Amino acid sequence: IEAHARIERFHELQKPRDLWFQEMEPGVILGMKTTALDRVGIYVPGGRAAYPSSALMCAVPAWVAGVKEVCACSPPAIKPLTLVALDIAGVTEIYSAGGAQAIAAMALGTESIRPVQKIVGPGNIYVTLAKMMLREHAEIDFPAGPSEIGIIADSTANPRIVAADVLAQAEHDPNAACILITTDKALPAKVGKEIDKMVAAAPRKEIIVEALKNSGYTVVSDIDEACAASDVVAPEHLSIQVADPLDVVTKVKNAGAIFVGKYSAVACGDYAVGTNHCLPTAGYSKMYSGLEVNHFCKTASVEMISRDGLEAIGDIVETIATAEGLHAHAQSVRVRREL
Length: 339
Prior knowledge:
The protein has 339 residues and is α/β, with parallel strands linked by helices. Helix content is 41%, strand content 21%. The protein has three domains: 2-141 and 291-299, Nitrogenase molybdenum iron protein domain (Rossmann fold, 3-Layer(aba) Sandwich); 148-281, Nitrogenase molybdenum iron protein domain (Rossmann fold, 3-Layer(aba) Sandwich); 308-337, no CATH class. The protein has 13 helices and 13 strands. The strands form three sheets. Strands 5-4-3-6-7 form a five-stranded parallel beta sheet, sandwiched between helices. Strand 3, helix 2 (52-65) and strand 4 (69-74) form a beta-alpha-beta unit. The chain is globular.
């Protein structure tokens, strides 16, 4: 319940105005109308673990946006914790369905599941591919597959903290990936030793060991090079463990979410700080943003033009329309000017 409240409070800050206008010049008033989607579907993973947090992360911004209907799919048997989270989030339309078939059901509709306008939520590679393949039927948030973390660190970084952040993402999925980008040549070995200690006692050791095969590190000459390398990777989560972290924040461009300083554990963003943990993976943070209220809205521009406004822009419109050979366009303005 406390996590729900924090997530709701942060997402309320993102809510756009329903309608606004601005007089651009005498007789020309322009604006934007924002409308929430009517019906969306959320996918809550459940194969290797319970993810009640994903239920909150997907449902809360939808309600904040003003969506009227939210349906949820999660693999059978749905974990009790997931059901509790969906109840807290106010979702009452819940289906025991997982994988690509659940995505298809929400996108196309079935005898028991009505189609949705948009599907959001993380999943494995099959869920992610299904979302991408069915976009002509239902829009999606973004590709959100196996978890990732990039860590930019210098000699001030605590090796144990870096190792802990690596394991926190590696335990999600055998296909998870972690990369350390550092200016300190000695840090990778120190982190490696800490990882070995932690893996030996980890409850999800088998998954972590597999994920570490997809992981690694690179040593760079300076922070600028570290930022450039991170932007190429475009990680889902970016942890910044350097002496001057805000300098890095201003320089990096591609990351789903950024965690600044040694106390900003990615797990805090996963569960309770209020930001959203549904984030683009596989380098897609180069072009997508993490889940937020605007994902559940659509906008339409609004134009209000008086006669004086039409006179101010009429010649421009008629000239361009005629040049494009769209004579009826020009005529639609001309007949109004002749009134």
